[in-house]
Amino acid sequence: MTNHWTPPSHRRPKLDLAALGIPAGRYILPDPTDFLLTPEGTNEGAARIHDYLNRKTGHDTLQPAELDFVRQHFLNAAEEQRQRAITHFESKVPRRYISARPTDLATAWAHTVTTTPETTRSLLIIGPTGTGKTHYAYSVLRALAETGAALKWAAYTAADLYAQLRPRTGRDSEATFEQIVGADVLFVDDLAAAKLTEWTEEVTYRLINHRYEQCKPGIFTSNVPPAQLRDALGERIASRLTEMCERVALKGDDRRKGMAA
Ligand SMILES: Nc1ncnc2c1ncn2[C@@H]1O[C@H](COP(=O)(O)OP(=O)(O)O)[C@@H](O)[C@H]1O
Ligand SMILES: [Mg+2]
């Protein structure tokens, strides 16, 4: 007897898809009877696949053709999930940044988010106006979509965030806050672009502190030089950002200068 209650969904071990080389995700299971339609398909094979999918046996009980059948199904499902993630990203990214492509570093960061989100340091992208911070951030979100991982991301400029969270009658701004901070990856653009008021400082603090405590990765940008971050954001926010973020410093001229509108 045990005095611990285990929810039904936890009683059966999950399929170890990583062992098959399949990225994490929630996939529809294959129909074992479809195996009969393949050249090597047999009744016994379909039965073994059925037992594997019902977690009665491990994948090591499957014959090579059966394993191929299962793996191919999940590879197709993972590719569909990846295409959906990219389509979703392209429907959300502001048009200006739709062609932003990730650097190898940005891609590597996205991969660590999918494998070890709680130990991945957030990104703090710093640089003067027009050096490509927002472009860089969206390229990272594209890299994340391209991994195909089922991760929820959200993107806001700090100004839009404050507008969303400002108390208004008939609106539960606390519920909005919970929804925003709950994203797997949160991108907040242009921190400290405007001088913080007591209220915006408090909101920013709660937001950053929540992400900090939950060890959830984020992407933040600011055009405030590192040495002035404490003055611009206040000690509590700046010290958390410094601890939780890897810094990406963008340099160069304002790319907007000389650009056709
Ligand atoms: N690596 C890049 N390649 C091509 N265009 C870029 C690149 N980085 C930025 N841009 C373009 O330069 C302009 C300014 O970039 P943006 O990211 O908006 O700057 P910031 O956020 O630093 O003010 C935008 O039109 C953007 O699309
Ligand atoms: Mg910007």
UniProtKB/TrEMBL annotation:
Provide the GO biological process annotations: DNA replication
User: Could you tell me what this protein is called?
Assistant: ATP-binding protein
Superkingdom of origin organism:
Bacteria
Q: Does the keyword Membrane apply?
A: no
Question: InterPro entries given for it?
Answer: AAA+_ATPase, IstB_ATP-bd, P-loop_NTPase
Q: Which CDD domains match?
A: AAA
Please give one Gene Ontology molecular function term for this protein: ATP binding
- Which Pfam families would you find in this protein's record? IstB_IS21 (PF01695)
Q: Which UniProt keywords are listed?
A: ATP-binding, Nucleotide-binding
Q: Does the keyword ATP-binding apply?
A: yes
**Source organism per UniProt:** Streptomyces antibioticus
